[in-house]
């Protein structure tokens, strides 16, 4: 009986994870051979990533591959239609503006975006979903070790491909975006706080 129950549980589809579905690989190709970053949907056709993940002008070949997997599968591929570098918001200043708002080509199969959440305090645990280069997607829990204005210090190490990863906080309505990972810092990483001013209309 237990063996049958175990088989039935294995046959059940995996529970949907809106945070994973809204996070994707920002790259010019679906393969792992080229450099990539991570991005997260915060509006139906708008994503956030690290500013250094885009060039001086939009690349028509660059796409947001939602919920990309190492076997090359993904939920949706949304071409980058344009972007705007964040100059300043109530949280970000010109000195801490390595965040970019990416406009994506409309697609009916685009995943649902994530809402914005409150800034975590030092000592709180956050979730970081990322796409390290040449590795499987990474879904980790990190601790906020410090905050200085709009900059969070995390104890999670950062590697190539993780720039642009969302730093998520858990709310009673689910996971929400609090910050964007932008840099390595010693054995940890740095993230910039963001808010719903970046979601657009």
Automatic annotation (TrEMBL):
Residues 1-16 form the signal peptide. Keywords: Signal. Gene3D superfamilies: Trypsin-like serine proteases (2.40.10.10). The keyword Signal applies. Pfam families: Trypsin_2 (PF13365). InterPro entries: Glutamyl_endopeptidase, Peptidase_S1_PA, Peptidase_S1_PA_chymotrypsin. SUPFAM superfamilies: Trypsin-like serine proteases (SSF50494). PANTHER family: SERINE PROTEASE. This is Trypsin-like peptidase. It comes from Palleronia aestuarii. The lineage of its organism: Bacteria, Pseudomonadati, Pseudomonadota, Alphaproteobacteria, Rhodobacterales.
